[in-house]
Amino acid sequence: MDLDAMPYRIFVTVAEELSFTRASEALNISQPALSARIREFERRLGFALFSRTSRRVELTPEGRLFLGNARRMVSEASWATQAAREIRDNDLRIGAPLYTLHIAKRRELIDRLIVEHPDIRLRIFDKSHARNYADLLRKEIDLALLVEPSDVNAAEMDAVSEVDWPDGLERLKMGEKRLALQIPAEHPWSETDAVPMEDLKNQRIAVINRILGAPLSAALTRALSELGAELVRPPEGHAVAVERYGRLTRTPAVTLGWFDALQTGSSKDVVVRQIKGLNFRTTLSLVRLQGEQRPAAALVWEMAKGPRAGRRAIEDRRPATAASEA
Hints:
Layout: H1 6-17, H2 20-27, H3 31-45, E1 50-52, E2 57-59, H4 61-88, E3 92-95, H5 104-116, E4 122-125, H6 129-137, E5 143-149, H7 152-158, E6 169-178, E7 180-184, E8 195-196, E9 204-206, H8 214-226, E10 230-232, H9 239-249, E11 253-255, E12 270-276, E13 281-289, H10 295-304, H11 307-317, H12 320-325
Helix pairs in contact: 1-2, 1-3, 1-4, 7-8, 10-11
């Protein structure tokens, strides 16, 4: 298998340079060898790619039509080469949306991994929930750190499509939080221990959008709508921005309880109150594809179970002599 897709790469380079001399220099190939590779490629394709004169090189109509396909082949080959290197070197790829930076448990896990295992080549990807699920299924990432509904059965029912909650994934619960409301200090609800459900009727509540996944958004919207709340959609719908919107507009806002981004604000500015009788919960999940795991991914899974499990996994990875000395 030609992981470099060299015939396509040569063609693209010549097409961009419109010069066999400059292309041979860019590719570090002698000009006669480059010309021979192009002729052989044209023979295999069944049409000419370039029209050549003593003064210039131009793409043929067929060459212009084929150029886009060739560029895609070069890109795909680069991605395949990168994937092969990551598999060979045991790179660890984790999907973790940017909002998870505001979750202490997420930071603790990733920070510990970086400090205790500098030999693992770690890459973190900021993508949507649906994209993380898809990348897990395609084995383009090893793990994903996501805030999800705690009720897995309800989440499956609330999924708009298979993309939103696919089968074949395994979840490790790293923590659970109960839905609450962030309430301005001057609001009457701030004087209560918990907000009665009936008090939500016709009350404006700022809510998150689908950025944390369709199942979570759908379940949350349904729960508040059934209580008669008037749902407010802030300009930015992720959970951290919704809490900030509530502070700025002095509007009660949904808080999932995970995010510490706003803790630098005045403690008297807002209060957090649960909704009496509404037991809506979310989970910080470490998600992976079911089946055999690469060593680095398996290690992180054990680390996420807790300090003791993580230490056992570390011991298991040491040579026997090192383990006995410890």
